[in-house]
Amino acid sequence: AEFGRVQHLIMYSLAVRLPLISRQIEDFPLSDKQLKQVYELMIKNGADNFGEIIYESYEGNFKVRKQKNPLPSYSSDWFRRYVYTYMPKFGEINNRNLYFLGCVEAMFPLYYSAMTAQIKKVMFLLDK
């Protein structure tokens, strides 16, 4: 059950960053309203911030997008919070768990980069 929740958290971690991703795409083809609709669709289809583990929000990232500051990088710290809160067996310090958490820490940013690249491709196709 815990790992099923992680899928929804992964979806949520991507959904809340849609405003930041949109800033990275030159001539982003969606309006702010359409972008919000995509976010709401992701929420409707299972993206969930179970236990408020992910501190980012769509609204907060929307405000950050409007600023000229550098965009914050993706962080998988939420996964560690989830493990330590809801999966204490995996929070124990041993070789297996440290390896598991280390792999996850390396894989989530790669996943995020791959998903961002796919979103950019889809947005480019929408623009044509």
TrEMBL record:
The protein's name: Uncharacterized protein
